[in-house]
User: Which sequence fits this backbone?
Protein backbone atom coordinates (compact mmCIF):
# COMPACT_ATOMS: atom_id res chain seq x y z
CA UNK A 1 0.00 0.00 0.00
CA UNK A 2 1.38 3.36 -1.04
CA UNK A 3 0.81 5.92 1.67
CA UNK A 4 0.69 9.48 0.29
CA UNK A 5 3.42 11.63 1.73
CA UNK A 6 2.48 15.03 3.17
CA UNK A 7 3.42 17.94 0.97
CA UNK A 8 5.86 20.49 2.29
CA UNK A 9 4.48 24.03 2.40
CA UNK A 10 6.44 27.07 1.38
CA UNK A 11 6.73 30.02 3.73
CA UNK A 12 4.24 31.97 1.62
CA UNK A 13 1.77 29.07 1.71
CA UNK A 14 2.05 28.93 5.48
CA UNK A 15 1.43 32.67 5.74
CA UNK A 16 -1.56 32.36 3.42
CA UNK A 17 -3.27 29.77 5.62
CA UNK A 18 -5.12 32.62 7.33
CA UNK A 19 -5.81 34.64 4.17
CA UNK A 20 -9.54 35.14 3.55
CA UNK A 21 -9.27 37.30 0.45
CA UNK A 22 -12.21 36.76 -1.90
CA UNK A 23 -14.31 34.86 0.61
CA UNK A 24 -17.82 35.79 1.68
CA UNK A 25 -18.83 35.56 5.34
CA UNK A 26 -22.36 35.77 6.73
CA UNK A 27 -22.64 36.88 10.35
CA UNK A 28 -25.99 36.69 12.10
CA UNK A 29 -26.41 39.02 15.05
CA UNK A 30 -23.99 41.37 13.35
CA UNK A 31 -24.93 44.30 15.57
CA UNK A 32 -23.79 42.59 18.77
CA UNK A 33 -20.35 42.84 20.34
CA UNK A 34 -19.25 39.39 19.18
CA UNK A 35 -20.75 39.96 15.73
CA UNK A 36 -18.85 43.23 15.38
CA UNK A 37 -15.60 41.64 16.55
CA UNK A 38 -16.06 38.78 14.09
CA UNK A 39 -16.83 41.13 11.20
CA UNK A 40 -13.82 43.32 11.95
CA UNK A 41 -11.44 40.36 12.18
CA UNK A 42 -12.70 38.59 9.06
CA UNK A 43 -12.64 41.81 7.04
CA UNK A 44 -9.09 42.55 8.22
CA UNK A 45 -8.02 39.23 6.70
CA UNK A 46 -9.75 39.91 3.39
CA UNK A 47 -13.34 38.63 3.63
CA UNK A 48 -16.39 40.47 2.35
CA UNK A 49 -19.25 40.55 4.84
CA UNK A 50 -22.99 40.02 4.97
CA UNK A 51 -24.35 41.23 8.31
CA UNK A 52 -27.82 40.33 9.54
CA UNK A 53 -30.08 41.51 12.33
CA UNK A 54 -33.81 41.96 12.72
CA UNK A 55 -33.24 45.72 12.51
CA UNK A 56 -30.98 46.76 9.64
CA UNK A 57 -30.24 50.19 11.13
CA UNK A 58 -28.54 48.51 14.10
CA UNK A 59 -25.90 47.10 11.72
CA UNK A 60 -24.63 50.43 10.44
CA UNK A 61 -21.81 50.88 12.96
CA UNK A 62 -20.40 47.43 12.18
CA UNK A 63 -20.89 47.94 8.45
CA UNK A 64 -19.05 51.26 8.60
CA UNK A 65 -16.12 49.56 10.31
CA UNK A 66 -15.95 46.94 7.54
CA UNK A 67 -15.98 49.68 4.89
CA UNK A 68 -13.15 51.49 6.67
CA UNK A 69 -11.09 48.32 6.37
CA UNK A 70 -11.80 48.33 2.63
CA UNK A 71 -14.08 45.31 2.24
CA UNK A 72 -17.54 44.99 0.76
CA UNK A 73 -20.47 44.70 3.16
CA UNK A 74 -24.18 44.00 2.77
CA UNK A 75 -26.74 44.42 5.55
CA UNK A 76 -29.89 42.29 5.56
CA UNK A 77 -32.85 42.07 7.91
CA UNK A 78 -33.28 38.52 9.17
CA UNK A 79 -35.26 36.88 11.96
CA UNK A 80 -33.20 33.75 12.60
CA UNK A 81 -36.10 31.84 14.17
CA UNK A 82 -38.23 32.28 11.02
CA UNK A 83 -37.32 29.79 8.28
CA UNK A 84 -38.69 31.97 5.48
CA UNK A 85 -36.71 34.97 6.70
CA UNK A 86 -33.53 32.88 6.86
CA UNK A 87 -34.09 31.45 3.38
CA UNK A 88 -34.69 34.95 2.01
CA UNK A 89 -31.45 36.16 3.61
CA UNK A 90 -29.47 33.32 2.07
CA UNK A 91 -31.12 33.91 -1.30
CA UNK A 92 -30.26 37.62 -1.25
CA UNK A 93 -26.69 36.85 -0.22
CA UNK A 94 -26.23 34.43 -3.11
CA UNK A 95 -27.82 36.86 -5.55
CA UNK A 96 -25.49 39.68 -4.52
CA UNK A 97 -22.29 37.76 -3.71
CA UNK A 98 -22.66 34.47 -5.58
CA UNK A 99 -21.51 32.25 -2.73
CA UNK A 100 -21.14 31.82 1.03
CA UNK A 101 -17.80 30.56 2.33
CA UNK A 102 -18.20 31.29 6.04
CA UNK A 103 -21.15 31.38 8.43
CA UNK A 104 -20.94 32.77 11.98
CA UNK A 105 -24.12 32.31 14.02
CA UNK A 106 -23.74 34.97 16.69
CA UNK A 107 -27.43 35.89 17.02
CA UNK A 108 -28.61 34.98 20.50
CA UNK A 109 -30.19 36.17 23.74
CA UNK A 110 -29.68 35.52 27.44
CA UNK A 111 -32.28 36.15 30.15
CA UNK A 112 -31.65 35.10 33.74
CA UNK A 113 -34.21 33.95 36.29
CA UNK A 114 -34.09 31.44 39.17
CA UNK A 115 -35.03 28.06 37.70
CA UNK A 116 -38.06 27.69 39.96
CA UNK A 117 -39.44 31.01 38.72
CA UNK A 118 -38.39 30.90 35.07
CA UNK A 119 -41.31 32.08 32.87
CA UNK A 120 -41.93 29.37 30.29
CA UNK A 121 -42.52 31.95 27.55
CA UNK A 122 -39.08 33.42 28.21
CA UNK A 123 -37.61 29.91 28.24
CA UNK A 124 -39.12 29.18 24.84
CA UNK A 125 -37.96 32.51 23.41
CA UNK A 126 -34.38 31.66 24.31
CA UNK A 127 -34.70 28.20 22.78
CA UNK A 128 -36.24 29.58 19.60
CA UNK A 129 -33.48 32.11 18.97
CA UNK A 130 -30.43 30.29 20.34
CA UNK A 131 -31.20 26.74 19.16
CA UNK A 132 -33.83 26.90 16.41
CA UNK A 133 -32.22 30.03 14.96
CA UNK A 134 -28.77 28.45 14.90
CA UNK A 135 -30.10 25.31 13.23
CA UNK A 136 -32.14 27.15 10.60
CA UNK A 137 -29.16 29.28 9.57
CA UNK A 138 -26.81 26.29 9.47
CA UNK A 139 -29.35 24.27 7.48
CA UNK A 140 -30.01 26.98 4.88
CA UNK A 141 -26.34 27.87 4.39
CA UNK A 142 -25.31 24.23 4.68
CA UNK A 143 -27.36 23.29 1.61
CA UNK A 144 -25.37 25.79 -0.44
CA UNK A 145 -22.06 24.65 1.03
CA UNK A 146 -22.91 21.02 0.30
CA UNK A 147 -23.44 21.90 -3.37
CA UNK A 148 -20.04 23.63 -3.46
CA UNK A 149 -18.28 20.93 -1.47
CA UNK A 150 -16.69 23.33 1.00
CA UNK A 151 -17.37 25.80 3.77
CA UNK A 152 -16.69 26.89 7.32
CA UNK A 153 -19.48 27.18 9.88
CA UNK A 154 -18.80 28.72 13.29
CA UNK A 155 -21.61 28.49 15.81
CA UNK A 156 -21.47 30.71 18.87
CA UNK A 157 -21.99 28.93 22.15
CA UNK A 158 -20.85 29.62 25.72
CA UNK A 159 -19.04 28.11 28.67
CA UNK A 160 -22.58 27.87 30.09
CA UNK A 161 -23.21 25.06 27.60
CA UNK A 162 -20.64 23.00 29.53
CA UNK A 163 -20.91 24.14 33.16
CA UNK A 164 -23.79 25.23 35.34
CA UNK A 165 -23.83 28.55 37.17
CA UNK A 166 -25.79 29.83 40.18
CA UNK A 167 -26.79 32.97 38.27
CA UNK A 168 -30.08 31.78 36.78
CA UNK A 169 -28.94 30.34 33.45
CA UNK A 170 -31.22 27.30 33.27
CA UNK A 171 -32.58 28.31 29.86
CA UNK A 172 -29.49 29.94 28.38
CA UNK A 173 -27.17 27.16 29.53
CA UNK A 174 -29.51 24.48 28.22
CA UNK A 175 -29.74 26.25 24.86
CA UNK A 176 -25.98 26.46 24.55
CA UNK A 177 -25.58 22.81 25.53
CA UNK A 178 -27.87 22.07 22.58
CA UNK A 179 -25.67 24.23 20.33
CA UNK A 180 -22.65 22.18 21.43
CA UNK A 181 -24.24 18.92 20.35
CA UNK A 182 -25.71 20.43 17.18
CA UNK A 183 -22.22 21.58 16.22
CA UNK A 184 -20.81 18.09 16.65
CA UNK A 185 -23.75 16.50 14.84
CA UNK A 186 -23.43 18.76 11.80
CA UNK A 187 -19.66 18.25 11.79
CA UNK A 188 -20.04 14.49 11.58
CA UNK A 189 -22.75 14.67 8.90
CA UNK A 190 -21.06 17.27 6.71
CA UNK A 191 -17.40 16.30 6.95
CA UNK A 192 -17.85 14.26 3.74
CA UNK A 193 -18.67 17.52 1.98
CA UNK A 194 -15.50 19.21 3.30
CA UNK A 195 -17.53 21.50 5.55
CA UNK A 196 -15.92 22.41 8.86
CA UNK A 197 -18.36 22.99 11.71
CA UNK A 198 -16.94 24.27 14.98
CA UNK A 199 -18.11 26.41 17.88
CA UNK A 200 -16.58 29.27 19.81
CA UNK A 201 -17.63 29.23 23.46
CA UNK A 202 -16.75 32.29 25.53
CA UNK A 203 -17.11 33.01 29.21
CA UNK A 204 -18.92 36.21 30.18
CA UNK A 205 -17.54 39.15 28.25
CA UNK A 206 -17.90 42.91 28.30
CA UNK A 207 -20.80 44.15 26.19
CA UNK A 208 -23.58 46.67 26.80
CA UNK A 209 -25.78 43.70 27.74
CA UNK A 210 -23.43 42.46 30.48
CA UNK A 211 -22.41 45.77 32.02
CA UNK A 212 -25.22 45.54 34.58
CA UNK A 213 -23.80 42.24 35.81
CA UNK A 214 -20.12 43.11 35.59
CA UNK A 215 -20.57 46.50 37.25
CA UNK A 216 -22.26 44.89 40.27
CA UNK A 217 -19.44 44.22 42.79
CA UNK A 218 -21.04 41.11 44.26
CA UNK A 219 -21.97 39.55 40.90
CA UNK A 220 -18.58 40.49 39.49
CA UNK A 221 -16.91 38.64 42.35
CA UNK A 222 -19.02 35.53 41.67
CA UNK A 223 -18.16 35.51 37.98
CA UNK A 224 -14.45 36.27 38.41
CA UNK A 225 -14.09 33.51 41.00
CA UNK A 226 -14.86 31.06 38.18
CA UNK A 227 -12.39 32.53 35.65
CA UNK A 228 -8.76 31.66 36.47
CA UNK A 229 -7.44 34.45 34.23
CA UNK A 230 -9.14 36.87 36.62
CA UNK A 231 -11.07 39.06 34.19
CA UNK A 232 -14.05 38.97 31.88
CA UNK A 233 -13.40 38.40 28.21
CA UNK A 234 -13.35 41.28 25.75
CA UNK A 235 -14.60 41.09 22.15
CA UNK A 236 -11.02 41.35 20.86
CA UNK A 237 -10.23 38.06 22.60
CA UNK A 238 -12.35 36.22 20.02
CA UNK A 239 -10.82 37.70 16.89
CA UNK A 240 -7.95 35.25 16.52
CA UNK A 241 -10.18 32.24 17.08
CA UNK A 242 -12.77 33.45 14.56
CA UNK A 243 -10.13 33.95 11.87
CA UNK A 244 -8.58 30.57 12.61
CA UNK A 245 -11.88 28.69 12.40
CA UNK A 246 -12.85 30.53 9.20
CA UNK A 247 -9.57 29.91 7.42
CA UNK A 248 -7.64 27.08 5.77
CA UNK A 249 -5.51 26.89 8.91
CA UNK A 250 -8.32 24.88 10.55
CA UNK A 251 -8.97 22.56 7.57
CA UNK A 252 -8.58 19.40 9.68
CA UNK A 253 -10.44 20.79 12.71
CA UNK A 254 -14.15 20.04 12.91
CA UNK A 255 -16.71 19.24 15.59
CA UNK A 256 -14.76 21.15 18.23
CA UNK A 257 -15.98 23.47 20.97
CA UNK A 258 -13.27 26.11 21.27
CA UNK A 259 -13.43 27.67 24.72
CA UNK A 260 -12.27 31.29 24.93
CA UNK A 261 -12.86 31.52 28.64
CA UNK A 262 -9.74 32.49 30.57
CA UNK A 263 -9.40 28.93 31.84
CA UNK A 264 -12.97 28.51 33.13
CA UNK A 265 -13.38 25.12 31.48
CA UNK A 266 -10.05 23.87 32.86
CA UNK A 267 -11.44 23.30 36.33
Assistant:
Amino acid sequence: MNVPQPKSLSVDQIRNLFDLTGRVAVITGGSGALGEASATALAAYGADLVLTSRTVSSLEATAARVREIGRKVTTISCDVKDSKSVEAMVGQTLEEHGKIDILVTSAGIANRFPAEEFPIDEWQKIMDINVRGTFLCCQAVGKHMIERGQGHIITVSSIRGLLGHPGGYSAYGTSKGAVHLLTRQLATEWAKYQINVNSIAPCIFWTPLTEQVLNDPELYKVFMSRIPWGRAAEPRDFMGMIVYLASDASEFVTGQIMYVDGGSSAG
Observations:
- Residues 114 and 166 are 9 Å apart (CA to CA).
- The domain at 21-260 is CATH 3.40.50.720 (Rossmann fold).
- The mean pLDDT is 95.
